[in-house]
């Protein structure tokens, strides 16, 4: 089990201040600004972001000129240039990172318990919002991946799978940066999120897209724009009766994107994946980087 460091006093103070803010209202206003096509506002927001996050690498983007984007949100959810993140071709059984970001905790789900960070645990049923969905992943495997604001914010497939169902789970919009992860108990089970269940050759796989403070936007190919609006009630959608070719995505295909800082949690069933010995927490990952090898498949 690989876990991050415990919270410091400054982490706890930061999290407490965030707890007191009207995060939904702030996020809703920020979303409106981010969607604006007003040129002076758009240019001001993008320039301010690039000054705040100077490590943002536009050389890898499909459009490297900031003026090519019609809104701040279009800039933030920018696509990568073709060929920037090639997938490993040697073995289709490799599960790859679905994002550019940082690996948080990962390992084995201890019956129904996941580790958020050192000293903080949370419940699988709480995370998925449904006991039936959770049953496939008891004693399975998990990995939490964090996307910083400067990262590429599109989410891709770690392996080939077909969308079976999705479940929107309402919640708060706390930050999901490492300081909040270390300080807010059950953070991933508190925040608004979208659970997508895939059927793969290695059994069920879940991808949980966790919303975050500021814009809190989640969009997927299967569901379209999930949030905003930030709903108060859960919402389930089923895709088993839909044409398989429309909801089957190959390893590396885009699955969705976030509108601001966010996290992805991957879940696999028991005895399905063997994590790479090269993984450590925290560790920077790139889209397509090998995370593990599928240890069991349902292929004949």
The ordered string of helix (H) and strand (E) elements is HHHHEEEEHHEEEHHEEEEEEEEEEE
Would you tell me the overall average pLDDT? Answer: 88
Q: Please summarize the sheet with the most strands.
A: 9 strands, antiparallel
Return residue spans where pLDDT drops below 50 for at least 5 consecutive residues.
Answer: none
CA gyration radius, whole angstroms = 18 Å
Number of strands: 18
Question: Per the principal axes of the C-alpha atoms, what is the gross shape?
Answer: globular
Count of individual domains: 2
**Proportion of residues in extended strands:** 25-35%
Describe the structure.
With 300 residues, the chain is α+β, with helices and mostly antiparallel strands. It folds into 2 domains: 18-76, no CATH class; 94-294. Helices cover 21% and strands 30% of the residues. It contains 8 helices and 18 strands. Strands 2, 5, 7, 8, 9, 12, 13, 15 and 17 form a 9-stranded antiparallel β-sheet that branches. The protein has a 4-stranded antiparallel β-sheet with strand order 6-14-10-11, with no helix packed on it. It has a 3-stranded antiparallel β-sheet with strand order 1-18-16, with no helix packed on it. A hairpin with a 3-residue loop joins strand 10 (218-220) and strand 11 (224-227). The radius of gyration is 18 Å and the shape is globular.
Write the layout of secondary structure elements.
Blueprint: H1 9-20, H2 23-35, H3 39-52, H4 72-76, E1 94-96, E2 101-108, E3 113-117, E4 120-123, H5 124-128, H6 131-134, E5 141-147, E6 154-156, E7 161-169, H7 178-183, H8 187-190, E8 193-200, E9 203-210, E10 218-220, E11 224-227, E12 235-238, E13 248-249, E14 254-258, E15 262-268, E16 273-275, E17 283-285, E18 290-294
Antiparallel strand pairs: 1-18, 2-5, 2-17, 3-4, 5-15, 6-14, 7-8, 7-12, 7-13, 8-9, 9-15, 10-11, 10-14, 16-18
């Amino acid at each position: 089990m690989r876990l991050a460091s415990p919270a410091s006093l400054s982490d706890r103070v930061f999290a407490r201040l965030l707890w007191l803010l009207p995060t939904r209202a702030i996020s809703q206003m920020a979303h409106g600004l981010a969607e604006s096509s007003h040129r002076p506002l758009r240019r001001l927001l993008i320039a301010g972001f690039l000054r705040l996050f100077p490590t943002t690498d536009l050389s890898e983007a499909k459009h490297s000129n900031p003026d090519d984007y019609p809104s701040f949100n279009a800039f933030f959810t920018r696509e990568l240039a073709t060929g920037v993140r090639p997938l490993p071709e040697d073995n289709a059984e490799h599960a790859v990172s679905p994002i550019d970001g940082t690996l948080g905790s990962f390992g084995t789900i201890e019956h129904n318990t996941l580790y958020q960070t050192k000293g903080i645990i949370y419940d699988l049923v709480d995370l998925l919002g449904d006991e039936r969905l959770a049953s496939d992943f008891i004693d399975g495997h998990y990995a939490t991946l964090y996307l910083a604001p400067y990262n590429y914010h599109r989410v891709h497939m770690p392996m080939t799978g077909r969308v079976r169902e999705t479940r929107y789970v309402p919640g708060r919009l706390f930050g999901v940066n490492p300081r909040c992860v270390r300080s807010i108990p059950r953070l991933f089970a508190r925040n608004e999120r979208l659970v997508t269940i895939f059927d793969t050759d290695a059994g069920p796989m879940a991808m949980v897209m966790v919303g975050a403070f500021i814009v809190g936007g989640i969009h997927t190919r299967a569901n379209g724009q999930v949030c905003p609006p930030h709903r108060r009630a859960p919402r389930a959608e089923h895709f088993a009766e839909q044409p398989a070719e429309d909801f089957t995505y190959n390893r590396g295909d885009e699955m969705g994107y976030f509108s601001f800082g966010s996290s992805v949690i991957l879940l696999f069933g028991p005895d399905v994946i063997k994590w790479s010995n090269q993984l450590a927490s925290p560790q920077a990952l790139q889209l397509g980087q090998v995370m593990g090898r599928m240890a069991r498949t349902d292929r004949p």
